[in-house]
C-alpha cells in the first residue's frame, strides 16, 4: 500500500471537488483525514484517497455486497 502524500490541489483534481466540499466531507467523517506535514500544511495519503474514489465508483454502479 502506497504511503505517498499528495497535496490538496491533487486531491481536488482527482475527485473533481472543491476545497470547501472536501473539508465538509472530512468534518462528516466521509473522506480520508489529512495528515499534518508542518505548522500550516497538510497532505493526504494517496492510497486512502484512491480507495475512497474506488468505493464511490462501486457504490454508484450498485456493486455493493
Characterization of the model:
With 65 residues, this protein is α+β, with helices and mostly antiparallel strands. 49% of the residues lie in helices and 17% in strands. Strands 1-3-2 form a three-stranded antiparallel sheet. A hairpin with a 2-residue loop joins strand 2 and strand 3. It starts with a strand and ends in a 5-residue tail after the last helix.
Beta-strand residue percentage: 15-25%
Overall tally of domains:
1
Order the strands across the largest sheet as they lie in space.
Answer: 1-3-2
Shape summary: globular
Gyration radius over CA: 12 Å
Order of helix and strand elements from N to C terminus: EHHEEH
Calculate the mean pLDDT score and round it: 94
Task: Summarize this structure as a short list of keywords or feature phrases.
alpha+beta, globular, 65 residues, single chain
Topology:
Blueprint: E1 5-6, H1 8-15, H2 19-27, E2 35-38, E3 41-45, H3 46-60
Antiparallel strand pairs: 1-3, 2-3
Can you give me a brief rundown of this structure?
With 65 residues, the chain is an alpha+beta fold. The chain has helices spanning 8-15, 19-27, 46-60, and strands spanning 5-6, 35-38, 41-45. It has one domain.
Amino acid at each position: 500500500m502506497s504511503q505517498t502524500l499528495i497535496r490538496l490541489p491533487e486531491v481536488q483534481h482527482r475527485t473533481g471537488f472543491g476545497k470547501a466540499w472536501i473539508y465538509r466531507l472530512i468534518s462528516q467523517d466521509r473522506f480520508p483525514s489529512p495528515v499534518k506535514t508542518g505548522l500550516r500544511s497538510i497532505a493526504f495519503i494517496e492510497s486512502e484517497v484512491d480507495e475512497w474514489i474506488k468505493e464511490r465508483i462501486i457504490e454508484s454502479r450498485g456493486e455493493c455486497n
